[in-house]
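Please check this.
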Amino acid sequence: MTSRIRLGADIGGTFTDIALETPRGMHSAKVLTSYTAPEQAILDGIDMVLAEAGLGYGDLEIVIHGTTLAANSLIERRGARVAFVTAEGFRDVTEMRTESRFDQYDLNMVLPTPLVPREDRFTVTGRIGAQGQELAPLDEAALEALADRIAAGGFGAVAIGFIHSYMNPAHEERARAIIAAKTGLPISISSEVSPQVREFERFNTVCANAYVRPQMADYLGRLQVRLKDKGAGCPLFMIHSGGGLISVETAAEFPVRLVESGPAGGAIFAADVAERFGLEKVVSYDMGGTTAKICLIEEFAPKTARTFEVARSTRFAKGSGMPISIPVIEMIEIGAGGGSIAWVDAMGRIQTGPESAASEPGPACYQRGSLRPAITDADLVLGKIDPDNFAGGAIRLSSDAARAAILSDMGDRLNLTATPAAFGICEVVDENMANAARVHAVENGKNISDNIMVAFGGAAPLHAARLCEKLGIDLCLIPAGAGVGSAIGFLKAPFGYEALASKVTRLSVFVPAEVNALLDGLKATAEGFVRAGTDGAIRREITAYMRYFGQGWEIPVALPDCHEPTLGRTEAGASRSRPVFDPAPG
């Protein structure tokens, strides 16, 4: 099933990008993101591309949407007030973390504050053992009283996370039923959101899901209604952080899976470009208005991971952020976009980001009220941008306003004219991105200079050449449609879903029948989500995460997709099943 008239919509921190694919070609638009009503920018952009293509809303056959709204909500702490219910003795897991230190010699080390403060974390008696057995019954009377307290407490959502619920979710499911009967609030349970070992990551992920769920459900509901009011009868799908498409209903229930949905589209776009040009080693460079993302792509596929961090308190430092335990395309992201603010620190050094002017008010050259210089202002002063043709002529830029902001905040203080000050701004942001790319490559055991760069996003083509110089990369490719690359990537994404389960077992006591039953459940779950979007042929990928006894972390081991009732020669059970439907090329 391949729709001929398809639309991708990507909400970024500064711009909302629209890409419309028709039999006659591609049409695109960039519209400033509206924070109070994000769906308005999508509709404005759709109006523009449909008018250009001579089509109406009723002609659309599919709309695919990705957004950074969930990620921004977590970073900026603009989510719902969450009540977290856990087992007795585990109230402070999200605050104690793993007790590891990403910088053991820093006495002033700062870690992200838990999403749920201690006074909103509640415990009840009940315990599930490591093998899924009930060690202590759930105190349902205490849960009834707690449900009354939550109902009267002004909470917007509830998260439930019990120890070892990935082995046996009975206590979480019962707790949800009791609380739901008295509160009517959206409730997330960890055994559905992230059924994996390691309680800190699992608890943090279910809290994050509950934190953004009311906001995302409300937004997605408004978007669906307004699209229908405009005459669109086509289905709306979301792209999740792992790079696949899911239904709006699934996205509203598990919005934490959308945290990296926009950047995932960019990685898919770069992977498609790599495949079309036969480039086996690619580093994708996506620089928008608020952030820059760098991703390694090998053999035409982005690298993936089971966890990632948001809101790192220390740049590039693993362990300094908030872990989210979901399937995700692995990339490194820094606060370096066209709207990132440039400033001078106490030592007289030029710095950029992570604060961004975003779309409201935007860089000084937008003439929307900002007097502080941003990277776009520096690019404009250096002649990299045509002020009369920015965003296809939709936004007229003022070189005088950009020059005045740079001189006021930086030039006068550093005794520089506007041009060298602008060059300093660009040089600093390029060096920051180069450092991020080097760190990302080293963490993955790769040499960054071995890759070919694919640059896209509104600002990346302006900085790609200098970045390649710094990284020792010989070849850079800027594809057609680079300015709306993530939105185009949405149109290349498959319908896909990753179902996970944990069953910790030694090979010495391995029982094939039990693992096959687990696999059957995973396949049914994942295929159910995929079938909500397509009736096409399905491809499955099955992976077991295995370790030697006594090791702390696992490595992924690909398993064959056996259709027999037993696994035969397979030596271990899988923890992930990922059905994928690939649309036809183009």
